[in-house]
Amino acid sequence: MFFDSEFDRIFKQMSRSFFNTDDIFEGFKGNGSESGPFYYGYTMTVGPDGKPVVKEYGNVKPGQLPASDTREPIVDTIVDEKEKVVKLIAEMPGVEKTDVKIIVDNKVVDLSAERGDKKYHVKVPVQHKVDENSAKASYKNGILQLVFKLVEEKPTGKQVEVE
User: In terms of domain of life, where is this protein from (predicted)?
Assistant: First the structure.
């Protein structure tokens, strides 16, 4: 049962990380520095190959002190083969669409937004070949949706006829 043993391994790792994070927070309570909310978490899905996929998010990582008051938004990547698009969905509540800045550079999308004490920043690698010029973004109710058209990869090389 590969899935069961893999799930158990990931769960133990997650549990260990949460306890370490709690220790980090305890250390902050005593030194009087107040730099904002600290959060850390996981999202877990099952990939197309049947193996679990765990993604971390937050402004604190286990074993590290928070470096800034900037939050890392939760970002999900959806590939729609039927529509031939890649969608990036990011949760960034508390900001307006005019506050959102998106920079696409060499298969990396840099998302940031700032309004008052709400600050978000994340760099998202795009695993698929997309047309950067086709990017269209919309923001509504704290959800940013960025859509790219997939670029069809044509096979390269030369076909050799058999005699």
Answer: Archaea
